[in-house]
Amino acid sequence: MVRDKKLIVGNWKMNLDTNEASLYLHKLAGMVKMRRDVEVVLAPTLLALQSLSLQIDRRQFKLAVQNLYWRDAGAYTGEVSATQLRGVVDYAIVGHSERRHIFGETDKDVRNKIQAALRNNIRPILCVGETASERADNETNDVLHDQLAAGLANITSDELTHITVAYEPVWALSNGKDFASHPTPLPEDAASVAAFIRRQIDHMFGKNAASDIRVLYGGSANSHNASGFLGAEGIDGLLVGGASLNAQEFSEIIEKAHKGSAVAKK
Ligand code: PGA
Asked: How many CB atoms lie within 10 A of CB 34?
């Protein structure tokens, strides 16, 4: 079952050029041991995807795109489609809060992107999460409900098995550098949100789907708080931004995912 493996995703955002990405990957590859119980996914800049796809050992790392356009081809200047990414990436981050809040991506865009990814054999990682003001107004559950209902509308139960949900409270996201000191939820709060997400999935797709879907936590995850989140009930991995840009830090997070699973199996 897919939840037997922890999923650690490094979202490099708009950092590292093609050369830097290649050097970074070389360094990381020397630090990260291949583990059966941990799947590591890297989401570099779009520009570096092609070259990194030739450089990586896919048993060690998989690749994700940070965004895509939902039409397969046509007159859409500046966009890249899931069809063009097919075979290059295994995963696509969809509906990241920076896409939603800086670039005005709507739930309808998110839904279309999820479907485009699935059509092209790319596994979507659907990001959901409340802003600071929504949290202050006690609207977290409503926001998550709406984002899940809209993002997953028209998906079949079979397609859902290819989808991962990432809970990323917007207020917990770092600016890329302050990931070690930025406020985050407590692991038990992330666990109760994961339980809420599974309840929504249960309503939409039934019990089995709810217990099988992978739920990640993201927002200032780092090597110090990783074990807490990874050990929280119902959390199957991490979506890591700032801390994924430091090879030492990221490899420690990956190792913690392995150690945590090793302890859980005893
Ligand atoms: P952060 O970013 O770890 O730097 O907070 C996570 C994300 O935006 O996916």
From this structure: 12
- pLDDT (tens digit, 9 = 90+) per residue, 214-248? 999 999 999 999 999 999 999 999 999 999 999 99
CB of residue 240 inside a 6 A radius of ligand 1: yes
Instruction: Give residue-wise pLDDT tens across range 181-212.
Output: 999 999 999 999 999 999 999 999 999 999 99
| Ligand 1 center–CA 206 separation, angstroms | 30
Ligand 1 contact via 93 beta carbon (within 6 Å): no
In ligand 1, the atom with minimum distance to the C-alpha of 174 is 5
Q: How far apart are CA 115 and CA 82, in angstroms?
A: 10
For the CA of 175, the closest atom of ligand 1 is 4
Q: What is this structure's pTM?
A: 0.96
- CB 152 within 8 Å of CB 204: yes
Ligand 1 contact, 169 CB (< 6 A): no
Q: How many CB atoms lie within 10 A of CB 119?
A: 14
- Of 263, 159, 260, 142, nearest to 212 by C-alpha is 159
Torsion on CA atoms 29, 33, 36, 40, rounded to nearest 10: -40
Best of 220, 225, 253 for a ligand 1 pocket test (most atoms within 8 Å of beta carbon): 220
pLDDT tens digits along 146-171: 999 999 999 999 999 999 999 999 99
